[in-house]
Design goal:
The chain has two domains: 237 residues, Rossmann fold, CATH 3.40.50.300; 176 residues, P-loop containing nucleotide triphosphate hydrolases (Rossmann fold, 3-Layer(aba) Sandwich). The protein is globular and about 70 Å long. By secondary structure, the protein is an alpha/beta fold. Helix 3 runs parallel beside helix 5.
Length: 505
């Protein structure tokens, strides 16, 4: 049961050069409630989180109160001391440090200069992981964990501060269904203990499953705060985007001849005996639980992972891809799951990111890049993919997740690939941009490109894909023609050990 307000925000504004990220936002978070914060990318959610975390200072006139008392955070440590802990979408972890060090590092910094009691730190870390139902060797290097377990370690780090407000920014983006259910049980327990949760997610089914109230931001302004019972999913979308969205409905494109064939592809410890065909104009979905080997198969096709055995054929000809450069040269492009760490050059402009794969075509005499050619190239892709805002010299970091994803797509589409592999293409993308990405993929397939789409979101798979492979424990457990596929059949194939009847490819 939720109680009085723990946190009150009054007239919160934040202005950057040329941009008003937040415009007089007022809201409150009650003791022991799960409060969802939603909005399109660019609505101001991240800025608000940074202000609450002490990483950004709001404009003069903004007021923050805790238990009715005014507070100011000039540094993240001050927010931690106020028992506000944040788990960011990008995790902000240290891959070369141990699990123990990642969980307790903020405690070490907070205690500044004191001799570290590692026995106590171990007990604290183990207790935090235990609240998440997770057993991990504390001495394990973080980089050796799956992305899903790294996500849980980031959440555990927030718990060691005995937080009164735990801010979870897209906490389920890399979790399996079972792990999400486990996290939701933890959230329910914390809620019962009086901990407030600010839950940020683009997954509306999660919002309605876990939230007590929902606050909507749009264009930096507070649209409203609503009990979840007062909203339908359609109403919430309308409040978020302020416009009518056209959601893609499955419509099969003409399917051409086979363009890619994989035979018996295996990599010990990752996947085994993977065989399938991809046709021109087809979107082939690969789904399954986190850890099933989906990404590893994609990386093997793209040359990031060298398989132990197996064959890959492109347009009927065998290819031996042992590097990403060879894959690109052959006509295979790969959009990774993590666009920020693997797909983009952060700190560089939109133009730098879009043009990087085709600089060879923009050089004039003496190998000097011609600005006119570069500008024309970048503008072409801005227009074709509707990248917004259309500012080539704007830093890629300042674009929304959806427009960053379009930039990654532009970079590889400029190579005119025959096969495009997209791994979780709408991860961390708002509902409006997701609809755009889905339509873009369908349009690309209609142009004759063969597309492999890896996705954990079953509604997405069913809306976009022509054929669906389900992986379980590193093997293909089932194959469904689109007309035979349902969420229930896919999940059964992903979870159950008994074989299911497969459709013909």
């Amino acid at each position: 049961m939720t109680g009085d307000s723990f946190l009150q925000l009054e007239g919160i504004s934040k202005t950057y050069p040329g941009v008003k990220a937040l415009d007089s936002v007022s809201m409150d978070i009650r003791v022991g409630e799960v409060h969802a914060l939603v909005g399109e990318n660019g609505a101001g959610k991240s800025t608000l989180i940074k202000i609450l975390a002490g990483a950004e200072t709001p404009d003069p006139g903004s007021r923050i109160r805790i238990d009715g008392q005014p507070v100011e955070f000039a540094h993240p440590l001050e927010a931690l001391r106020a028992r506000i802990a944040v788990t960011y979408q990008d995790l902000s972890l240290f891959p070369n440090l141990s699990v123990l060090e990642n969980i307790t590092i903020s405690r070490e910094i907070e205690e500044g200069g004191r001799v570290v009691d590692w026995k106590e730190m171990r007990e604290t870390a183990r207790a935090a992981l235990g609240r998440l139902g997770l057993e991990i060797d504390l001495d394990t290097r973080l980089a050796d964990l799956s992305v899903a377990n790294q996500q849980l370690v980031a959440i555990a780090r927030g718990l060691v501060h005995d937080a009164r407000l735990l801010i979870l920014d897209e906490p389920t983006s890399s979790l399996s269904r079972g792990e999400i259910e486990s996290l939701f049980r933890v959230i329910a327990t914390l809620r019962g203990e009086g901990v407030s949760i600010l839950f940020i997610s683009h997954k509306l089914d999660e919002i309605f499953a876990i939230a007590d109230r929902i606050t909507v931001l749009r264009d930096g302004q507070h649209v409203g705060t609503y009990p979840k019972e007062d909203l339908t999913e359609e109403q919430l979308i309308s409040l978020m985007v302020g416009r009518k969205l056209r959601f893609i409905e499955y419509e099969q494109n003409p399917i051409g001849s086979p363009i890619l064939e994989v035979k018996g592809l295996s990599k010990q410890g990752n996947f085994a005996d993977i065989s399938f065909r991809l046709h021109r104009g087809e979107i082939l979905g690969i789904t399954g639980l986190v850890g099933a080997g989906r990404t590893e198969v994609a990386q093997a096709i793209f040359g990031r992972l060298v398989p132990d055995r197996g064959e890959v054929y492109l347009e009927g000809q065998p290819i031996n891809v042992t590097s990403t450069a060879q894959a690109v040269e052959a006509g295979i492009a790969y959009i990774p799951e993590s666009r920020q760490s693997q797909g983009l050059f952060l700190g560089k402009t939109l133009a730098d990111n879009v043009a990087v794969t085709r600089l060879d075509t923009m050089a004039g005499r003496f190998k000097i890049i011609r600005i006119d050619r570069l500008t024309e190239h970048v503008q072409h892709w801005i227009n074709r993919l509707s990248i917004r805002p259309p500012y080539p010299r704007m830093l890629i970091d300042q674009f929304s997740g959806g427009n960053q994803q379009k930039a990654v797509l532009a970079k590889w589409l400029a190579y005119e690939p025959k096969v495009l592999i997209v791994d979780e293409p709408t991860n961390g993308i708002d509902v409006g941009a997701k609809s755009e990405i889905h339509q873009l993929l369908r349009d690309l397939a209609a142009s004759g490109i063969g597309i492999i789409m890896i996705s954990s979101e079953l509604p997405e798979v069913l809306a976009v894909c022509d054929r669906i492979l389900v992986m379980r424990r590193g093997r293909i457990a089932a194959e469904f023609a689109r007309e035979d596929a349902t969420q229930e059949r896919i999940m059964n194939a992903a979870i159950l050990d008994r074989p299911l009847k497969e459709s013909a490819s």
